[in-house]
Amino acid sequence: MAGRAAEEIFMGPDNITSGASSDFQSASSLAYAMITKWGMSEKVGFINSSQKQSDQVQSLVDNEVKKLLDDSYAQAKSIILKNRDKMENLVQELIKKETLTGDEILQILNVKGKTLPKMNKSLI
């Protein structure tokens, strides 16, 4: 959801691409499983999606999946907007250097007290 939210925020709503389509497909499948397989909706409760559902139950499931996706999108937008300046700093550094180490990214994002494990290049 964050890829599409970032496009909307940084590129504008008139410049949205189809790049996030596979992300939406994955997010929709995950949300559907959360609702129909793992009982993660108080409104739907514990149902087994392998059984035929009534139109009423299917409508409830669809509404819960949509709500979960809408809420996730709103949360992604909120996080990006809250950290927009950090993202723009990161973009500027990437334009300058093309590649950054994990520690450089943490420094740009102003994440204190964290370090990333060093990669053993012989394993790559």
TrEMBL record:
InterPro entries according to UniProt: Peptidase_M41, Peptidase_M41-like
GO molecular function: ATP binding; ATP-dependent peptidase activity; metalloendopeptidase activity
GO CC annotations on file: mitochondrial inner membrane
One Pfam match: Peptidase_M41
Domain Peptidase M41, chain residue ranges per copy: 1-108
GO biological process, one term: protein quality control for misfolded or incompletely synthesized proteins
Spans traversing the lipid bilayer: none
PANTHER family linked: ATP-DEPENDENT METALLOPROTEASE, METALLOPROTEASE M41 FTSH
Protein name from the UniProt record: Peptidase M41 domain-containing protein
Source organism of the structure: Tieghemostelium lacteum
